[in-house]
TrEMBL record:
InterPro entries: Ala_racemase (IPR000821), Ala_racemase_N (IPR001608), PLP-binding_barrel (IPR029066). One of its GO terms (molecular function) is alanine racemase activity. It comes from the Bacteria. PANTHER family: ALANINE RACEMASE, LYSINE RACEMASE. Its cofactor is pyridoxal 5'-phosphate. SUPFAM superfamilies: PLP-binding barrel. CDD domains: PLPDE_III_AR_like_1 (cd06815). Residues 9-224 form the Alanine racemase N-terminal domain. One of its GO terms (cellular component) is cytosol. The keyword Isomerase applies. Keywords: Isomerase, Pyridoxal phosphate. It comes from Litoribacter ruber. This is Alanine/ornithine racemase family PLP-dependent enzyme.
Length: 356
């Protein structure tokens, strides 16, 4: 049976590392929990670290956080839809917004629920996902800052999430300038410049973060210890907070090439035959995990001594060559995971989740 391990000590090491760095820089931060897909066991691990602010893109996950600890500030990190507005206002203390009509609906719902709802206005800085264009930001703010039961607590931005645009000091300075202009024009205080996600952390570590930036939303670097500028694990952090274990359910020596008339498989792929491989064979292992659980391109083999040949909906096939480690049916094969691989595994109902 395949299962996923979360290593508590490694997660705590990563959390403590980031906490120290953010404290040294005078920056507040919240933990993005969307990777955990609402898994109660893993959410408890986050809360037990002392996390007091949790961000997620699924309202049901924020509802679970509030159930586990009502004192945690919850942040909804994608534009809310009209049809989930009541639940969003109920379970999220803060939300990220870039649409005037949406904020008006939030205001109306917050009045109905007799709640104060906090808003971070998202500003477009080049990656072309969500965000108000800078030229319209002053007019945008003018139409929302006096809405009832709404409190604008920050300006924010997202980079690298769609088109791969990287954060820079200049882009973040511009965001800080927008904040200063609004505060001067409207005589209002905007506490936060929420300048980014994990991809912006290297700027802070290299002391290239503008002084006005004072809030982050962090997920990937917490769970994978990664510097997203250099695509490597940061010294002092762990890259293997999560590990996937899969079980061998068949192990046999088989030809390298299939026989018979070839057509497209269920994924629409047609095998390209290398005729030089006819007559050759190797040991093949079938693992108890498949495309229903994860795309194989997001799996990282520990020792590199086998090749992932492909997958069907529920099975993954490896080429073990001569099988130098003498794997047999029932043995476990371990994988590390890329972010999107971990997200898929955590979203899979069929993979057991464990804490070590």
């Amino acid at each position: 049976m395949a299962f996923l391990n979360l290593y508590r000590d490694k997660l705590k090491t990563n959390f403590d590392f980031l906490k120290e760095k953010f404290n040294d820089s005078g920056v507040a931060w919240g933990v993005v929990s969307k990777l955990l897909c609402g898994n109660e066991l893993y959410l408890k691990e986050l809360i037990n670290l002392g996390v007091d602010e949790i961000h997620d893109s699924r309202i049901s996950n924020l509802a679970k956080v509030k159930e586990l600890n009502p004192d945690v500030q919850t942040v909804y990190i994608k534009p809310a839809s009209k049809r989930n507005m009541a639940d969003m206002v109920k379970y999220a203390d803060v939300s990220l917004n870039s649409e005037l009509s949406t904020i008006k609906w939030i205001s109306e719902e917050a009045v109905r629920q007799n709640k104060k709802h906090k808003i971070i206005i998202m500003v477009e800085t080049g990656d072309l996902r969500e965000g108000v264009m800078g030229d319209y930001l002053i007019d945008f703010y003018a139409q929302i800052f006096e809405l009832p039961n709404i409190e604008v607590i920050g300006l924010g931005t997202n980079l690298n999430c769609l088109n791969g645009v990287m954060p820079s000091t200049d882009k973040l300075i511009q965001l800080c300038l927008y904040k200063q202009i609004i505060e001067l024009k409207f005589n209002k205080d905007i506490p936060w410049v929420s300048a980014g996600t994990s991809v912006t952390i290297p700027l802070m570590l290299r002391h290239q973060l503008p002084q006005g930036v004072n809030h982050f939303r962090v997920g990937e670097t917490l769970y994978f210890g990664v510097d997203l500028f250099e695509e490597k694990v940061i010294d002092g952090m762990y890259g293997d907070v999560f590990e996937l274990y899969t079980e061998i359910i068949e192990m046999q020596e088989k030809p390298l090439l299939p026989t018979g008339v070839l057509a497209a498989n269920p994924q629409g792929d047609v095998l390209d035959i290398d005729e030089s491989l006819y007559g050759k064979s190797s040991f093949r292992a079938i693992l108890d995990i498949g495309l229903l659980d994860v795309d194989p391109k997001y799996l990282l083999a520990e020792d590199g001594e086998f090749e992932i040949l492909g997958a069907s909906s529920d099975m993954l096939i490896l080429d073990l060559g001569e099988n130098p480690k003498n794997y047999k049916v029932g043995d476990l094969i371990k994988f590390n995971l890329k972010y999107m691989g971990a997200l898929a595994i955590l979203n899979s109902y069929y993979i057991e989740k464990r804490v070590k």
